[in-house]
Specification:
With 228 residues, this protein is mainly α. It has a domain of 95 residues. The protein is built from five helices and no strands. α2 packs antiparallel against α3. It is elongated and about 165 Å long. One of its GO terms (cellular component) is multivesicular body. InterPro entries: Snf7_fam.
């Protein structure tokens, strides 16, 4: 049967937006290259027109330049058309990508919703409240145990704080009285910080010998020397 009617030809998949965009970009690059070459030729013709004398030769150069300008405008129109097509394809591509992202987001949210529902079946708010109440009771019991273990046996519980403060003030007063009752000569001397000059020293007095004293113990009166 295949030999008689022939087999069906496999159809090629339709081009994607990215394929169409790449094809248009290649065409745009080709048009840009042609426009660049025309600009170079127009620059050369412009220089020739400036150097040529007015006459038939200059007019011929101008005619060639005008023809190149027409070609350039045609290519520029094609380039603008290709740019518009690329812009439209980009918009369609952005819309398609947005829809794909929305589909993925919806799928992820559905999966998460299903998982949360399964988890909520295993967790009950009543169990959490009961656990919190039990933890509170355990903490209270633990605090009571700590207070009981830290209690002192010899200190009465009915001690007034004001009585303790009065006793402390009386103890401080007794200590001040004892420090004031010590005599000054028993208290340690404080070193003076004053830099006083040293006491002057005098030569020792020469003792008077007894043979130079009279019968009353007084030194003898010096006698005037006699002149010869």
């Amino acid at each position: 049967m295949k030999k008689i009617f022939g087999a069906k030809k496999s159809r090629d998949p339709p081009p994607t937006i990215q394929d169409a965009t790449n094809q248009i970009n290649k065409r745009g690059e080709s048009v840009d290259e042609k426009i660049k070459k025309l600009d170079e030729e127009l620059t050369r013709y412009k220089e020739q027109i400036r150097k040529a004398r007015p006459g038939p030769s200059q007019e011929a150069i101008k005619a060639r330049a005008i023809r190149l300008l027409k070609h350039k405008r045609m290519y520029e129109e094609q380039r603008n058309m290709l740019y518009n097509q690329t812009y439209n394809l980009d918009q369609v591509g952005f819309a398609a990508d947005g829809l794909k992202d929305a589909q993925q987001t919806m799928g992820a949210m559905k999966a998460a919703n299903k998982e949360l529902k399964g988890m909520m079946k295993t967790v009950k708010i009543e169990d959490i409240d009961n656990m919190q109440d039990e933890m509170t009771d355990l903490m209270d019991v633990s605090n009571e145990i700590q207070e009981s273990l830290g209690r002192s046996y010899n200190i009465p519980d009915d001690v007034d704080e004001e009585d303790l403060m009065g006793e402390l003030d009386a103890l401080e007063a007794d200590m001040e009285f004892e420090s004031a009752a010590v005599p000054s000569y028993l208290q340690p001397d404080e070193e003076s910080d004053l830099n006083l000059p040293a006491a002057p020293t005098y030569p020792a007095a020469v003792p008077v010998s007894r043979h130079q004293e009279d019968e009353l113990g007084l030194p003898p009166v010096p006698r005037a020397s006699l002149r010869s």
